[in-house]
Design a protein that fits this description.
Elements: H1 7-17, H2 26-43, E1 46-52, E2 64-71, H3 74-80, E3 86-89, E4 102-108, H4 117-127, E5 128-139, E6 146-148, E7 155-157, H5 167-172, E8 179-187, H6 188-192, H7 196-199, H8 204-217, E9 221-229
Parallel strand pairs: 1-2, 1-4, 2-3, 4-5
Antiparallel strand pairs: 5-9, 6-7, 8-9
Length: about 230
């Protein structure tokens, strides 16, 4: 699998071209709304939140006292500065936070972009307090396709996705000591039928009543979401 030697430079350049704060596709907007509502429900509330790969900063909807946005793009972070306790330009492989300093980590649609997901998972585990929680989401069993990069003129995966995950692969990056749960979300049958536009403002439970049986029948879904909890010390 290809690895980019200067992926940080690539992401910073891409951020100047791509607006993370808008999505002009109505069907995509509706599905994103549903997925984010699901992640927020799993996240609960926390005193200190760390949002890795913050993009548009939607994780600020988590009830919190403090939230830190981590991103590689100065442009994105500047736009989020007013909403955060701190906007930190940093690499997910080396988080500039103390051990056991964060109650909740959200890493949504980020680990598939990283050169070394295992290293990033180790950093998430390191910064989590005992009793803390991480919610991580990625595309589910994605078939990675390639195109030509506009910056380096080399073959590069669509959407800059370097890895494909299922629940077992994603959970394996975290220690055995972790309490782990996984969820498959977003039936592709419902996506083709444009059902997210119907369900986006309805109760999330109603969506799941249709979503889960269809995923069980036809194991084709758009995302996997895992919840990692660090046990409290006795």
């Amino acid at each position: 699998m290809n690895r980019c030697s200067d992926y940080i430079g690539h992401y910073r350049a891409d951020a100047e071209h791509f607006d993370y704060f808008t999505n002009e596709n109505p069907a995509g907007q509706a599905y994103e709304r549903l997925l984010r509502r699901f992640i927020l429900a799993l996240a609960g509330k926390a005193r200190t939140v760390l949002d890795i790969g913050s993009g548009s900063g939607w994780a600020a909807s988590v009830p919190h006292d403090n939230i830190f946005f981590v991103d590689l793009s100065p442009k994105n972070l500047a736009a989020l500065k007013a909403e955060s306790t701190g906007s930190v330009m940093a690499d997910a492989h080396i988080l500039p936070f103390r051990d056991e300093s964060v109650d909740l980590v959200i890493a949504s649609e980020i680990v598939e972009h990283l050169n070394d997901p295992a290293s990033a998972a180790g950093e998430i585990w390191r910064v989590l307090k005992p009793g803390g929680r991480a919610v991580v989401s990625t595309p589910y069993k994605e078939k990675i396709r390639y195109t030509l990069c506009i910056h380096c003129n080399q073959p590069t995966p669509w959407n800059a996705h370097l890895h494909s995950f299922d629940e077992n692969i994603l959970l394996s990056y975290f220690p055995v000591a972790a309490r782990k749960r996984s969820y498959i979300f977003g039936s592709k049958i419902l996506a083709v039928a444009r059902a997210p536009r119907v369900f986006r403002n309805l109760p999330l439970l109603l969506w799941r009543l249709f979503d889960l049986p269809l995923i069980a029948i036809v194991r084709k879904a758009q995302h996997v979401v895992v919840v990692i909890e660090k046990p409290r010390r006795v």
